[in-house]
Amino acid sequence: MSKQLDTNLFEGLSSMEAATRFRTYGLNQFKQKKPRSLLSMFLNQFDSFIIKLLLGASGVSLLLGQVVDAAAILVIIGLESALGVWQEYKAERSLDALKQLSTPTACVIRDGVEKKVSSTQLVPGDVILLESGNTVPADVRLIESYGIEVMEASLTGESNSVSKKVHNLNNKDLPLGDRVNMLYMGTSVIRGRGKALVVSTGMYTEMGKIAAMLNDVKAESTPLQKDLNQLAKIITWGCLGICSLITVGGVLGGHPLLEMLRTGVSLAVGAIPEGLTTVLTISLAFGVQRMAKKNAIVKTLPAVETLSCTKVICTDKTGTLTQNEMTVKEIATLDKKIEITGEGYQKKGTLLYNQNAIIASKYRDLRLLLTSGALCNNAEIEKLAGEKYEIKGDPTEAALLIAVEKSGLPLEDFSCYRREHEIPFDADVKRMTAICSDAQNHYHVFSKGAVDSILEQCSSVMMDDQVLDISQEYIDTIVSMHDNMASRALRVLALAYKPLDYKSDSLIEGGLDNQMIFLGLVGMMDPPREGVKEAIGKCHQAGIKVVMITGDHKETAAAIAKSIDLLTEDGIVLSGEELDALDADALSNEIGKVQVFARTCPEQKLKIVRAFKKKGYIVAMTGDGVNDAPAIKEAHVGIAMGKSGTDVTREASSIILTDDNFSTIVKAVEEGRTINRNIKKFVKYVLSGNFAEVLAIFLASITGMPVPLIPSQILMINLVTEGIPALSLGVDPPEKDIMQEPPRDAIHSIFDSRLKRRIITRGIATGLTTLGVFGGTLFLTGNLVRARTMAFANLVSCQMLHAFECSSMSIRRNKALLPAVAISTGLMLASIYIPSLAAVFSMGPLNIEDWLMILLSTTILSRLDDFFKDVLYVTRIRKTPSFGVVN
């Protein structure tokens, strides 16, 4: 490798050669996406068919001389676009606030001299120095290693640290997690030090390749966007049909052509629910605000509603399902099994033996085991605000320090010990040893590591306060203890100790960690987040499949999935290697049964998401590492972690969780379903009113009656009914049963057959009663102005009643509904009783008898509505096969 890169491994590159290569390779960073301007955000809001339809309606209104209506539609479009831009701008600002502001540096050897440079200036062939706490600035190959361990979770998804060593690999196709001589950009050195050769920078690194994969993933229209575009097309043809039918029918009924043409066009424009996009946008915006309070930042509004269709949530494990805070849960000596309460990096907890709290200092074997864990340890714990702590170093070692604190042995008590010598952890030996002296200048050897490695060095065991010779029986017991812990997803460490009578000048001699005394085992795990088990239960109840995708080994992943009720008895656990062995058809057959994918790489995550999409599932994908970004962008709803997530992942997502908690995803799904249900309420309310207008005018025109509503009255009805009451329906709070029904099927439109039936039945009932009130008044009084005023008042009153019926909430829960209806009712009364307004809309005042007739009409309306629902339901049942009940 050094020959290929033409590098002196001792002196590094010369400054001149580094400058030459920099001109060739460029900055060691990912290509930056050009930020969108406010103008591009604004223009993007017009990229939908329904907005184009509204613009067309505005143009037609202008041609007909209806300047006020044309201006009103343009104002509505402008407000919606501004709201959309504001939401996207806020999301971009929130995203910027999450990004790292500092530029990392690297220690590089150039011209034989160590120097600090910005990591963006590194080039292939540079020789860099690494130590604990460093972030690896590029893809590098180790030249020298002194116990280096790296956390690669952001790249491979594996939660445990990985030991690295200088080693030649014969297999070039090894998974990233198994390339022990390579360190990758963005990973963290948590232990040891070393020297490494830079082999790739910028977009040529493994993380750069993943970032480049994002360009191959195209964003799809959300189910809601597809539905809106389809609805707009239906409305367009419907309006053309309405205009033609009304005009032709009116002319055949004896009305003047120009009058009927104007009425037909006005009705067609009025039939367009221009408030639809407004209410949708505002409903989504309110949902976004509620989600922000629940720790979810939404970057694109339609993503909220898409959550209502989600059938599969693919989630990583570390930090999402688990706390990403390793915790000692159990200690086992040869004669005691001790449980430790408390989770994460909090020192609150108790040691329990036989369900009783104990004091560790009273048991010699336990005290020595904890002492070994505290002193054979390079981690540090820094106290933060409250009861939280921040670790520096290996999470496993930090977990041991927290366990020591919980035991009642303060870490300050170990300050009397001095580290005299250390044998660093080695991947081949699988153990670490520390030699310490105490205040009396006595020497002690403490060791920790894999069980088999520690047992090889032990000649005796400690049981309570006795040291006994080791035997096969004891070894079998220890191995059985280890297997039991491992089967419960615990990471197991063995600890050993021996007193040393050597003098300090003899500490470099070999064999220091032989003839050790076995003390016991420590079992630790990254505990599940609080509430995650309940959240997964909610998902299952709601018909949502939860799939865990992790870099952990198969057995570990399965055990953790079982502990949170994610993996069921009939569920399948599939490794990345097994996944690659399946062809497309085999994967399609198996994908519905798989609940856990283990030991996966970025390409496989993308393959998994695509396989679910191919089966017709709406997929949400969560993640934090760069390795998750392509799959997050491919998914219908990409969800990134705000705390632990990388910039690349957050850029690719549509929703960001500021608390990195799976439970927040479930709350977001609940919000999405609420918005979906509110959209249906609004659509039912508005379209049934529009259908009633069309029906009443059409029936009047073909029967030779005068037109019940003139254009100005049609526009006023739309203003009164489609405005504030419709908005109040869009903010209905969640219903109690919202997570007890299956997801909305995205294959079928949000405007499903049931919703269409309700629009038609209500529209017919309202249209017939409006025509009846108009015809009855005209027949009894012969006053056309009064009859049209009655039709106007009846239609608005029916819609006000319908607003209450559409909302499933009480007025106590939806506090906006009653004021909204009151305001609209006030506008209706003002247009009837204020002389100047009544003159504009060609209406006159109504008396008490008129209002009693309208009251009777609304009563008849409810009966007619029920009748038409029953007729359509019976018809539907007759056409439906008898194998099931249709709701």
TrEMBL record:
One term under GO cellular component: plasma membrane
Name the UniProt record assigns to this protein: P-type Ca(2+) transporter
Top-rank lineage group of the source organism: Bacteria
Family statement drawn from the similarity comment of this UniProt entry: Belongs to the cation transport ATPase (P-type) (TC 3.A.3) family. Type IIA subfamily.
Entry membrane topology: Multi-pass membrane protein
Biological process terms in GO annotation: export from cell
Organism: Geosporobacter ferrireducens
Catalytic activity: Ca(2+)(in) + ATP + H2O = Ca(2+)(out) + ADP + phosphate + H(+)
Stretches that traverse the bilayer: 63-86, 234-253, 265-288, 682-702, 759-779, 816-839
EC numbers: 7.2.2.10
Compartment list: Cell membrane
Residues covered by the Cation-transporting P-type ATPase N-terminal domain: 1-66
Annotated GO MF terms: ATP binding; ATP hydrolysis activity; metal ion binding; P-type calcium transporter activity
UniProt cross-references to Pfam families, sorted A to Z: Cation_ATPase, Cation_ATPase_C, Cation_ATPase_N, E1-E2_ATPase
Assigned keywords, A-Z: ATP-binding, Calcium, Calcium transport, Cell membrane, Ion transport, Membrane, Metal-binding, Nucleotide-binding, Translocase, Transmembrane, Transmembrane helix, Transport
